[in-house]
Amino acid sequence: MSTLKMPRVDRQTLKNKDKIIVDISRFTRKQNILSENEELKPYETDGLAAYRQTPMLVVLPETTQEVSRILSYCNKNKIKVVPRGAGTGLAGSALPLADCILLGLGKFNKIKEIDFSNRCVVAQPGVTNLAITHAVQNKGFYYAPDPSSQMACSIGGNVAENSGGVHSLKYGTTTNNILGVEAVLIDGTVVRIGGKVFDSPGYDLLGLITGSEGLLCVITEVTVKILKKPDTVKAILLGFSSMEDAGNSVMKIISNGIIPAGMEIMDKVLLEATNNFSKAGYPLEAEAMLIVELDGTKSEVEELIKKVADICKENKCTSVKISKSDEERLKFWSGRKAAFPACGEMAPDYYCVDGTIPRSKLAKVLREITKLSKKYKLPVANAFHAGDGNLHPIIMFDANDKTSLEKTEKFGEDILKLCVKFGGVLSGEHGIGIEKRELMCEMFNDNDIQQQINIKNSLDPSSLLNPGKVYPILRKCAEEGRLHIHGRDKSKFSDIPRF
Amino acid sequence: MVETNQNSQTSLDFNIEKFEPKNESEIQQIIKYCFKKNLPIEIVGTQTKQGIGKNLQCAKTLNMSQFSGIIDYKPEELYITVKAGTPIKTIQEELKKNNQHLAFEPINFSKIFKTNSNEGTIGGTLSCNFSGSRRFRVGSARDHILGFKGFNGKGEKVKSGGTVVKNVTGYDLSKLITGSFGTLVTLSEITLKVLPLEAETKTIIVSGLPLEHGLAIMSSAISSSNDPSGALYYPGNLRNNFVFNDLTHPGSITAIRVEGTKISVKQRIENLIEDLSLRDKKLAILDLTQSEIFWEVARSIEVFSKNDGNILRAVVPPSETLNLINRTKNFHPNYFIDWGGSLIWMELDYLSSQKIDQLRQRILAANGYITLIKSRESVKSSSEIFTIDPIKFKISQNIKKSFDPKRILNPGKMYTGI
């Protein structure tokens, strides 16, 4: 565990561990309570594997009623609770605390209802994102948000982090694609928000909960909207001799009224690395490459592909390659999806940064990132969800070298500060968690943060649900609580594609 | 005695009842003053939607309509930042210059409430979160707000969000304040997502279908990959509201809107006619101009603007709509159905709070909700306007307190006690 400042450990709670186990076993089956070190070990970290902390206990409830009784008990006895879905999050939102009960929702793994007539699916929170699409694809439907970890990440976690994916520009993120949740508050209250209808009256609690990183409630059921798959999907690969040309093309595509399903930029470093890795057929001579995916009816896609190619030609693209089949389209994406493992081939460790900037600033920000790369003497590969301005620079370093590690962290911070400086935000889709907690002051002033904390206090007055996440503990930007990361473990979920 | 604020260059007369602030500093001073003196404030724009929610009798009124104007518009970044009092019409006209629009089709209430104020302000539109026929395809107002600045009930300036669509940086307060009827924050600046106007729009109209058949067609259309952007049903008794060259058949109207590039619209219209077996039906295809007029009637609920009836808005899962309409026949409502079968606008000549309760029970049983939009003051004051259960009421009360501890912003507008 690093020296990141976390909430004070409650020694009394730790002393009462045995009694707590006995008490909790009244609410759930005994085998759902893990308390031995070797049982706890797999839960000591999430996708941000550099930070590790063994929880006091792991509890794996099976029903909403169990969750309610456990939370109510924790609230009365002032025990901290950290909710966890699949644990694939990259910002440390599910990092345990030494005196917490880690509440794993893994046993909530059933799809409860598939309702084609109302175009929705009711799922328990532990169901994976991709499993929802698999459950409805026989009738040509799918669930739109597609975070790259979709084969492993859970829908409950998606709600907690407001997960996006490569298709967010056209189809939105989780918050735009869910209709309702069942959730449990820290006092054990079970609340149903929304349902199978849009825009339930009253305050938009669904909007508030989505992206709240487990600080406000534990989600026990999610109703998602499903869409019919488009008739035709095609992708086009475009090479450019400069990032400026690629960035300008993105702007021109949008200002011509085209909203592609996906639009990605990769820089030369990543282009070469991923092409070596997955043989995706990328234009290796290019300095930057754009992948544009278009969907709709056949004639529409053909028309738009031609328009996109023409716009890019006007903006000096050096190569154009259109997918001729679905296999080829997926091959185009395979390189992009292999960004993480490909970087893993180039350096002992890598660190993926997540921030969003206005689209028009892409080339400028990239130039700044290149300067920073020289300053810190650390190589960086750049992938952008260019359509929505979401950057994912991947810094390569060696975790065994302490200086390299510190420099990487500083480099990442500088990139995020750049995002804010250029009118963007600290996180596009990974969330704040512990990773960016202390950077919140870059975007928000004391009033803004206090208002958010007031909301938290109004629902969880003792701050027991996932404390120490999202909001800076010290609340003064000068006193950064975030310090060193030790031993980043790239093997954690390394088989899951990330982008 | 005239009290003035010492800390600002502007000197405000706090004794007046109606404030019309022209800058953020004035908004802040007024709310801080009311907070200090425990004075409730009614926040209004151009009052096109003032009739929705409980009528308020506040000591002070904060009229935001003078706080108007476009602050920043970046067509290529797909966003616009405006002051809260900016009229919807002004925004749409500006966006149109760049072939863009607010895709959520803000409902224009000025016809049913008989006001004429350029369709109301953006602040009011977001505070109410009522969105048009494109809802199932593009979302509602809450899906199009990217960020805001405003003042909470203590007069503290708060902000959330930004100008980008992908943003997970703290709680999404932009969504929370949308649809909160001014009870949490007085909005000052709003950033909205804008989208390109589609080059072509056409509408398939099938005439004379019974409701059951109309609903089935809407459902099949939305569940197809033809990606329609509107699907609604007017029963036969409302047919005479529509006069179009290309609409010659009598009877009910089942309408499917398709938008996109010219080639795409043509192909999707053909697909829909084929897939839904519409060739032998009483069919009309409205072109771009006729389509725009047709959908504008729905956006302004125009078919209910002639009478002075009571207007209710019910939302149920589409599979429940037919049953619900059958079960509400004894109330004799005029109705039409939008959002592909999910949104039911109802007009009733006679309404009492008892009737609303009966309707509410039936709609709750269908897993939906109902909102009273327009009625006599005597009915409104004795009825629940919005649907809420006790658990959500308690949560909402707590949230209200976190923004507005003294309950001075539009108190009771949505619910008594909030």
Short précis:
The complex is a heterodimer of chains A (499) and B (418). Chain A is of the alpha+beta class and 499 residues long.
Please explain how this structure is put together:
The complex is a heterodimer of chains A (499) and B (418). With 499 residues, chain A is of the alpha+beta class. Chain A has helices at residues 11-15, 17-24, 37-40, 64-76, 129-136, 155-161, 168-171, 205-209, 243-255, 268-278, 298-314, 326-337, 339-346, 362-376, 402-421, 440-443, 446-459, and strands at residues 33-34, 57-59, 80-84, 100-104, 111-115, 120-123, 141-142, 178-184, 190-194, 218-225, 227-228, 232-240, 262-267, 288-296, 317-322, 349-352, 355-356, 380-385, 390-397. Among the domains of chain A are: 11-104, Uridine Diphospho-n-acetylenolpyruvylglucosamine Reductase, domain 2 (2-Layer Sandwich); 111-228, Uridine Diphospho-n-acetylenolpyruvylglucosamine Reductase, domain 3 (2-Layer Sandwich); 232-337, 2-Layer Sandwich (Alpha-Beta Plaits). In chain A, strands 12, 13, 14, 15, 16, 17, 18 and 19 form an eight-stranded antiparallel β-sheet that branches. In chain A, α9 (243-255) packs antiparallel against α14 (362-376). The longest helix of chain A is centred in the last third of the chain and has 20 residues, at 402-421. Mean pLDDT of chain B is 95; it is low at 1-9. The two termini of chain B are 32 Å apart. In chain B, β16 (334-338) and β17 (343-348) form a beta hairpin. Chain B has three domains: 1-197 and 388-418, 2-Layer Sandwich (Uridine Diphospho-n-acetylenolpyruvylglucosamine Reductase, domain 3), CATH 3.30.465.10; 200-299, Alpha-Beta Plaits; 308-381, Alpha-Beta Plaits, CATH 3.30.70.2030. The longest helix of chain B is centred in the first third of the chain and has 14 residues, at 24-37. The chains are: A alpha+beta (499), B alpha+beta (418). Chains A and B meet through β9, α8, α9, α11 and α17 of A and β8, α5, β10, α7 and α12 of B.
